[in-house]
Automatic annotation (TrEMBL):
Domain GH3 C-terminal: 389-494
InterPro entries xref list: GH3, GH3_C, GH3_M
Coiled-coil region: none
Signal peptide location: none
Organism per entry: Flavisolibacter ginsengisoli DSM 18119
Residue ranges annotated for the GH3 middle domain, each copy included: 299-364
GO cellular component: cytoplasm
Domain of life: Bacteria
Protein name stated in the entry: GH3 auxin-responsive promoter
Pfam families: GH3, GH3_C, GH3_M
GO molecular function, one term: acid-amino acid ligase activity
Amino acid sequence: MARIIDIKLPKAIAAALRIPENDPRRQQLRVLKKLLKKATLTEFGQKYHFDEILLSKHIGKEFQQRVPVHDYNKIYEEWWKKTLEGVPDVTWPGKIKYYALSSGTSESASKYIPVTKEMLRSNRINYIRQLISVFNYEHLPRNAVTKGFLMLGGATDLQKGKAGWYAGDLSGILAKNRPFWFQTFYKPGGRIAKIKDWNEKLNEIVEKAPDWDIGYIVGVPAWCQMCMEMIIEHYKVKTIHDIWPNLGFFVHGGVAFEPYKKGFEKLLAKPIVYIENYLSSEGFIGYKDRENARGMKLVLDNNIFMEFIPFDSKNFDSEGNMVKDPEAYMIHEVEEGKDYALLMSTNSGAWRYLIGDTLRFVDIERKEVVITGRTKHYLSLVGEHLSVENMNKAVELVSEELNISIPEFTVAGFPYENLFAHKWYVACDDKVDEDLLIKKIDEHLCQLNDDYAVERTSALKQVFIEKLPEQAFLKFMETKGKLGSQHKFPRVLKGKIWQEWNEFLNMNYENK
């Protein structure tokens, strides 16, 4: 009788054999291989030997060792600049037809971010996934999904470049390339979507509003709030539900929603569901796929390879600039509760590209994240390490406590009496005492951030505030040519942009 031999595999091998198909590490490596294969014959792929990387046993680590990290200036000057001249096969096969214009919120010059047909297809797939996930929301009014949706975005009438490409806001590019089956539900419709002047577009939407049965709105909170306020005022109604009774949810992204929530609630007759997504000019990164999720689930299997750089002094200088060779982790190496800057490699020809956002994993198993700020949008003059997340939370708490709406704010730091100070600029049309407002903000920040609390007793000597009408922020954005669509007011002011902001205030609001 033959003896049965019991062979026991090493734990590591046994574990590897049982890796499920939806394992995040496997999903990401599959995406990376697909991207490398597609771009092997491009100039970029040839220079960094994508063919050799594909033959490596450890493709992720080999990719990280061979390919350098890029911020926008580096990849634009070395690679993307040529694509604007019509040169094909630079960082992605073929010519680039579309460019998303992005300023990142602080730089004055527009960035040209390539948008390929493959990226547009990936974005559409993720939109469909998010829409399907909405049915998992317990408190979502089901009839809202079957109604029309209002997408407040950039003009679909894009600017044309000499080499035959088109450029504009990503939302305008997406709307221009919307699939045919969107037409029945999509508002404001093709004619209004083409309008470049933001004020003209809003006025057209206001005129048409009663003719539409809107179930949900998609857009950046500030502009969507402004649109609803204009409709309510124009038709002399109490809430937006008097015009759109089936409005059930709001899909938003780009900025933290907490500072806007109080203002939104004042415009509603009944609660609506807020659904967050993470759509950048470089790609559709994630979305909240369940009602009580703490964060957004990263999309790991749809043509974006992600890396995560610990957001600390080892990898970034005091101005938020990335060092030359930062340590970068793959999805299976990250830790919960830590802040990371995001690197992306995509099917639009971005390679190890720093998009400027900082993330924190709040559920490591589900790979859910929250956006905590921007690499260059935080204040740490004396070690206070004040993040945009801290600022947003403090404003949310103060808004609730004082029952006021603060739709916009920004903060600057500067030397003051041999030490340092912060100055807050707050948009608030409600009546509130400035001294009380800054006192409450300061108190909440001390509770939220231990470093800030320590420095408030030493080097951070004073915190000032200037309360302004909301129109001040909007008019400043208009002077910069950034009114509407995806443009956001920077939460932290530094350098030239702060100087321009002060000049604008001195000219327009000196005797407010």
